[in-house]
Structure formats: structure tokens, C-alpha cells
Amino acid sequence: MTTRDELFPGTDPTATAHREFDWSSTSLGPVEQWPAALVSAIRTVLPSEVGMLLWWGNDLVQIFNHAYTPMAGELFPKAVGQRAEDCWHFAWDAIGPLADEALSGTAVHRRRERFLLNRFGYAEETYFTFSYSPIFGGDGGVNGVFVATSDVTQEVLTERRLATLRDLGTVSVTADAGVASVCRAVVARLSENPDDVPFAAAFLGTDDGLAQVASFDTVDGVLRSADLGAVASRVAASAVAETVSVGPTTALVQPLLASSDAPTGVLVTGISEFRRVDEQYRVFLELVAGRITTALTDAHSYAAELRRAEQLEELDADKTRFFENVSHEFRTPLTLMLGPLDAVLSDAAGRLDDRHVRALQSARRSALRLHKLVDILLDVARADAGEMRPHPEPTDAAALIGDAVGLFRDSTDRAGLELTVDTNTGGALLDLDRGMWTHLVMNLMSNAVKFTTEGSIRVVLRCPEETDGTRRLVLEVSDTGPGVPKAERRKIFERFYQVAGVSGRSQEGSGVGLSLVSDIVTALGGTVEVTENVPRGTVFTVEVPATVTTAEPDAVAPTDLVTELGARYVGETEQWRPIGSDEARSTQAPPTDGQRRVLLVEDNADMRRYVTGLLEDQGWHVTATDEVDTALATARATPPDIIVSDIMLPGRSGLSLVDEARSDGRLVRVPIVLVSARTGSAQVIEGLRIGADDYVVKPFQPAEFVARVRVHLELARLREQLLGDAQREISSLRIALDSRSVLSQAVGLIMAQENVGPDRAFEIIAKRSQTDNVKARILAAQVVDDFVRELG
User: Which of 146, 692, 701, 767 could form a cystine bridge with 687, CB 3.0-4.6 A?
Assistant: First the structure.
């Protein structure tokens, strides 16, 4: 005989409830009378860590272990010893047939079976994986049902909710017109999970308040109730979620954010009547709102990018039109400048002196440079608009490149550079766009001449044949300049990019030459790269597909294209000439007595010669140099009366000159006038801050420029005169004090004794002198003698 204490040992609530239950009130009778088969089954079930349940007898009386108790919820402890049909009456329509099947001797197994169980005071959506196994008696009949079960509700809910969140994450924002369509798309995805979101609605803010833009399964009038409207408005204003009763059910109202932290609308999500809002449920609904917020943010960003792309496209079109119009507007006055200049220069022999001829040549070079800049800007605009297209024609590539490079030989010879040209294409004629190739070569050559101050420039052209029969035209331009740091070798082909700290013959430049090279090479279907020229310098390598062609001799006859374009590029190199024998001879003559001395620092040869002429016309002596270090050495050797310096110079800038001059006692009072082509630039402001006296903006009126230099010369002269007068006064005072040393000593003694100033001390001596009728000098000597005796 087995007692209750023996059959249900342990201190857990489940064991305690089974011990205390009056089993005699059931069809099983007292525990002591239970059959061995039941006792054996109970002793198998109770220790298990898996939820297990026994239904015994015809009325299926319940006995279960402690692992099963949480599944009973608030039905425990009443479920102990209760008939299965009475305990699970609210779901017996689903459970009963399964139990009957087991009682008939057939085992039952189900996975993730859905039941609506009233375990916590409401019909709850649950999922169980279980097996019902018949318990056979000795006579072959079924004595009861053995139930092994696992509650997989949270597992099922989590998978279902994650699937919904994944679907929300796939909502496309690029194909929709705006946030309203995004809201409709995400609400449609929510409608695919009615178990967790039985209804939903999205509201977006408008000028008139909140407006519903999407919903599903909403009863007419429910979401438009006054209470919900007030809650939605409050949530939209505070960005704090609220739970609200909506008709017979409950809803969570959450703020929707978009491109900022300010709410752009609200999301109303219904809460299932078969689930309580526990932590997992609330987190899911918050993640839903978060995914919608992300989609709305993406929609705003996409719309903004579309607007930006449209604006950029319009801007590109406007830029192209602007450059085309400006090019046209510039070319007309340039034509009217270059035509008369060429005519005057061709007829100048014997009629104009050398100075005027040089001035006209300088003006022509500047006009050609402006013409080149106009062409480059127009080409840049065309490249940006995708309108740079080659127009090939039969060409002797070696002759074309050789002619283009040859135009720079005079510039390289004058700069002391060795220019080597090796163009060998095997005599083949190639289909080339002559204009593009001429621009490409001259840009690379101009760049090489500008930055190579010593050494050599080498140009190599080859047209090798590949194994498959195709050809490549390969151009290499190498120099011995300062080189390009490895990290910046791709950047130098970007618009307006210039390598910082790299010195050349000039700091002038628009920063579009190499970017235009890249645009041309891209239009030709090739590549361009820059590498190191060991041991010093750079190598620019251009590779472009080449097509061999045949043509009549006149089709490849030389044209004036190279000469025409070359004048614009070579004319610019003329302005990089260093100080040399071609400068005005008067700059080398020593100044005469009393002649004002001007130190001019300017790297552009034409500008240097022009300014020198303006200053010499005033009778001033001009010493010209083209960089800061030479200028400082010259000024320290013989301080000038004034320094006129450009800001943008090769190597160190004009700001360095100002800074060092103001730290040098020999030059600290020398006036400095800066010249800049950048009005209002930070460099000008910095120059004035560190001690420059004035700045002049290019282009300037000659009379104004001369007048401002003259003002600073006169101010400097006046300042030096006043300082000289002051020094003479100090010297005279020192002599006077030395000759009246006794009187001075007496004044000092009275100041100390009477604690008065010098004027009062002198009045005391004068008054005593008048009273005693004794000369002030004798009285002062007595004061000194008295003091000496007191000390003795």
C-alpha cells in the first residue's frame, strides 16, 4: 500500500497540492487503493523535467508533475485531480477528439498546435508540441493517457514577428513617390500578420493636422473617434507612445519620425485580443514603428537625393550654357584685342621703341593666355556634360606630337632644361582627334616646364602592336621636378586640385589642366597615370587605343592647329622667365644719391616688367626679384625704402616675406605693399595682420597703384624724419642734463625727500633761490653737499 506522502514527495507547490488533494472525491478513490500500474506511471511522470500529465480512468482524472504546472497557469491548483474535460472545457472541442483517439489505443503527436486557452482569465493564443500515448492495462484495455507536452508559444510568436519585421525591411522607397506611399506599403505588409496586428492605420501630419494615409481592417468610425484623435495629436506633439481603448479592443499609438527628431505622424496598431501586451509584444510593436520610421527616413532621403540630382543636372546644364555663353562673349573682345595687337606688332618695326614693343608683346601673351583659359573652361563644361566626343582623322602622330613639343624648346633652353623628344610610331598613320591630342600634349608639357626648375624633360611616343593585332598609342612625359606624393597621384586629376607645398616657376594656375587631360583621355577611351621618375620627378603615361588607317597625302598635310594652340600655351611659359638679361637694364644700375629704392617681388615676367616700368617712370630705382629668399637677402644687404610683393609666389609666399621682415630689426620699419589677385582673401587679411602696410588688388589702375606706393614712401620718409628729430632732442636733453648734473641731482634728492614729482621739486629749488637771492645752481650744490654730510 502506497500513501500520498510516499507517492507525492517534495516541497514544491505541485507535490504539495497533490498530497493535500482529497483523491477520494474522484473516481480514483483513496491513494492507498490505487492500482500498481497507476502508481508506477505516476512515479515515472513526477521526476521528469519535461511537462507531463496523466489522464486516468474513464473520466480522465488529471495528475501532473511540477514542470507542467506553469502551463496550467491560473488553473492551478484547481486542475489537480480535476476531470480533463472540466479543466479544459473552453478548448475541449479541439482537445477531446485527440484524447478519444488516444483512449482508442492510437498514439497522437502534434507539433505547434494552436489552442485558445483560458489560463489567465482571457482566451489566450497558445502553441504546444505534444504527444498523447495510451496506457494499456494487463487485459489489453486502455487505462489512461500519458501526455508529454512543451509550450512553444513564444517560439512561434517570435518567428512570426521576425518574419513581419523582415518584410517591413524590404519595403522599397526608391520606386515610390513619397512618404504617403511608403506608409501604404508598410501597412499592407502589416496586414499579412493579423494575429499580432489585427488592424493598423498610419497618419501623417499636414497643415490642417493629422491625416490618415493608410489602414486595414478598421471598423468605420473606430479610428476616427474623438478619443483616438486627441491621443494621436498628443503623441504627435510629444513623441511619447500611449495605449488607448479603441472600441472593444486596445491599440498602441506610437510616433513616426522621419528626417529629424520631430514626429512626422503616428502609427496606430491594434493589439490582439488573444494576447496580453507583455514585454515581447511591446518590443515587437516598437520595432514595427522603428522599421516604418526607417522607411520614412529613407523615403525622405531618397526624395532629397532625387531633388538634389535634378538640381545638379539643371546646374550642369546651366553651367554648360553659362560657359558656352561666356566663351562666346570672351572670344569677341579677345578677337578685337588680338587682331589689332597682331597688326600693330607686325607694323611696329622702326615705328615704336623697344619698350612699347615689349609692352604690346606682353599684352598679346596675356590675351592668348586668357583665350586658353576660356577654351579650357569650355572643354571642362563639355566634359562634365558628357559632350566631349573625339573626331578622328588620318594623322601622322609622331609629327603632330613632335611639333607640339617642339614649340616648348625655346622655353626649356632659356630655363636651362634639357628637352629630349623620341617619337617613333613606325611610320603608321593613325585615326586621331588632332585637337584633343594637341591640348593633351601641351597641357602635360606646360605642367612639366612649370614645375621642373632644373634637370630635364623627356617625351616618348610609341605605338606597339599587341598579340591580338590591336595597337595602343603610348605617350610618356617625364620630368625631374619635385614629384607628386603617392597619396595624391589620383587627386591631381580632380577639378581644381593642386598639390600643397610643391614649388615651381609660378603659383599661378586654375587647377584644371590635368583634370582636362584626364577628361580627354577618358573621351579617347584610354587611361592616364602618374608614377615616380627615379630618382626624382614624375612620369605621366597616357595609353589610348589606336587604329591604323590609310589616306591620301593631302589628308594628313600639316595644319596651323599646333601653331595656333601652341601660342596660347607657350605664351604662358614666357611669363615664367626668371630674372635675367632680358629685364630692363636700368634695374641693374646703382641708385643715385637721394633716389627712392623699391624692392619688387613678382614671379610673372610680364607683370614684373610692367610694374618696374610704372615705378621707374616716377624716378624711383627698382630692384626686381622673383622669390622670397632672394628678396630678403637683398633687403638685408641694403634696406630699401619700400617693398612691393605679390602674395602668390613660387616656394614661400609673400606672407613669409612680411613675417620675416617684421621680425628683423633692419627691416621692421620698411613699408610693405602686397599685391593680390584675390580680393578679400584670407591671405590678404593675414598679411595685414602680421604687418603689411597695404594691399593692391589686380587688376589695378596704374595711377592708383603708383599713388599708393608714393603715399607709403612719403609716410616712411616723414616717420624717419620725426624719429630723427626725436633722437636729436633726446641727445640735446642728455647733454643739458650732463651740464647741469648738480641741479639734476638736487631735483632727484628733493623728489625722494618730499615725495613729489620732478616739476614740483624744481619749483621748490626755484622758490628758495628767489627767497634767498642765491643762484639755483649754487643752491642745488648746497642741497647735494648737505645730503653728503648727512651720509658721512
Answer: 692
Residue 486 to residue 181: CA distance in whole angstroms: 49
Spell out the CATH class of 158-310: alpha beta
- Distance linking the first and last C-alpha atoms of the chain: 136
Taking domain 368-574, whether its CATH number is 3.30.565.10 is answered by yes
CA distance linking residue 529 with residue 538, whole number of Å: 10
**Strands 471-479 and 429-432, bridge-based pairing:** unpaired
Q: What is the dihedral of CA 343, 344, 346, 349, to 10 degrees?
A: 160
**Angle between the N-to-C axes of helices 354-384 and 605-616, in degrees from 0 to 180, rounded to the nearest 10:** 140
pLDDT tens-digit readout, 719-771:
888 777 766 655 544 544 444 456 667 777 787 777 877 777 777 877 787 77
pLDDT level of residue 585 (50, 70, 90 thresholds): very low
What is the 3-class SS of 443-469, one letter each residue?
HHHHHHHHHCCCCEEEEEEECCECCCC
Q: Which of 660, 620, 655 is nearest to 640 (CA)?
A: 620
CA distance 288 to 169: 10
Query: In the chain, where are the structural domains located?
Result: 4-151, 158-310, 368-574, 585-731, 740-791
In this predicted model, what pLDDT tens digit does every residue of 377-409 receive, in sequence order? Answer: 677 767 766 777 888 888 888 888 888 888 888
Cα separation, 750 vs 742, in Å, equals: 12
Q: What is the pTM of this model?
A: 0.48
| DSSP notation for 736-792 | HHHHTHHHHHHHHHHHHHHT--HHHHHHHHHHHHHHHT--HHHHHHHHHHHHHHHH-
